[in-house]
Amino acid sequence: MTDLDDLAGRLDAAVRTATAIEQLSLEADLTLEQAYAVQAAGVRIREQRGDAVVGAKLGFTSRAKAEQMGVSDVIVGVLHRGMAVTDGGTVDVAAMVHPRIEPEIAFLTGSDIDPHDEGDAVAAVTHVAPALEIIDSRYRDFRFSLTDVVADNASSAAFVVGEWRPFDQARAELDLAALDVVLTVGGAEAARGSSADILGDPVLALDAVKRMARQHGLALPAGSIILAGAATAAVTLPAGTTVEATVGGLGPVRVATTGDLDG
Description:
Elements: H1 4-17, H2 32-48, E1 53-59, H3 63-69, E2 75-80, E3 84-85, E4 90-92, E5 100-109, E6 125-135, H4 146-151, E7 156-161, E8 165-166, H5 167-173, E9 180-185, E10 188-194, H6 204-216, E11 225-230, E12 235-236, E13 242-247, E14 251-258
Parallel strand pairs: 1-11, 3-7, 4-14
Antiparallel strand pairs: 1-2, 5-6, 5-11, 5-12, 6-7, 6-8, 9-10, 9-13, 13-14
């Protein structure tokens, strides 16, 4: 029988030491439910070290990416306090294995989202902001199956949130489903997309997160940060540069990098 806690421990060690490991799927034929159990075990390991959960993120919100992976639904991962980087702050890529970065939209909740009630998750949201997510698969050669990436906490590594703006005001003044998104690396455009690339409308990510929380036992208390998903393809994150995303009327968000990557 596969020891799911052992698999979670391996992934946690890979994160802490920035060391690539073999895909779990090469030795363990995990179901999707088991993969989420590995993810949950990894979350508990980090919480035991004092790294509290501060939110959740969605993956495969792009139809093209979902089709590429052969999946028909989003996946969910957990955000820890230790993953948060201040807007304009610095992240060390040497502490990661395969860092990539993508522009997103973040939501902040002002009340609990109960995954089991019938209410609309949108009602819990108080603020919205531009965001950057740094993803980092811990698997060798950046190759993984669906269950691999779920077990690896949806490749979560770090995130940066720009200036929060009142959600109701933003919805009244902007079409959140049609914001131009530009990602620059070192001042040069690296990717361009639209908020429509996030499930057709990033606001739809809120009920998707609620549904995934119900299915996989996640808590979404007041003050949770929810990353709706990527608005462009992820791009490689090099050392010694500055990355900026500009999300329509929501404004910019930036991060600088230090360190060096092997190879």
